[in-house]
Amino acid sequence: MVRIKSLKRKTGIFAPRVALRPQNPPYLRWLVIAVLATLALGLSWGMYDAGRKFAGFDKNETSYELDRLSQLNKRLQQDNDELRMKAAGLERQLQMDVAASEDVAKQVKMLGDENTRLKEDVAFFQNLLSVNGKSEQKVSIGRLKLERGQLPGEYHYSLLLVQGGQRTKDFQGSLEFVVNFRQNGENMVTPLASESPSKTFNVSFRFYQRVEKSFRLPPDAVVESMQVKVFENGVAQAKLVQTVSLSL
What is the pTM of this model? Predict the structure, then answer.
């Protein structure tokens, strides 16, 4: 009975488990290890190379990129220099155009003023000839004006002396100018002196004579009007007295 039980334990479902393992040749294991190592090295090198390229450590590509950026910078500098030169040329041209336009405007204004003055002179002469064409010799003042100058305290005045009638001789005499102005809240009067040795404004004409001069006052003086007197040589009393206000 004992033997039968022992035999039953060694056979059947009661027998101990036996593991069957196939025997692989050693070179096959080494071959698999070599393949895996090669794959690991290849993967590592690929990741390392990709990391270098991503970080910009690839010498060839970095050098190419630097050359490209250097050429681009050089081209941009050349374009900037050209644009700067063009801008400077356009600015100079604009300044020349503005100066020329200002000169033209000044000339147009001067011509306009001269044209207005000539029209006034013609109208004055026509009126004088029509009224006094056959009357006795007589002197009159036409187109008396007083204007501000360009400098502080500077003023310009002009007048036209005309001799009508028979004109048998030249009119010889002098002019006297008096300026009325305000300064420091007070009304003041000052005569104008001529630059001639006699300090008088001498005139001598047969038909007409135009007088245009300037004078200076302190910048804080405010000119209101100017009076002109016409004297004939040898006569103490003024032949003509006329006052003009400052043109605004």
Answer: 0.52
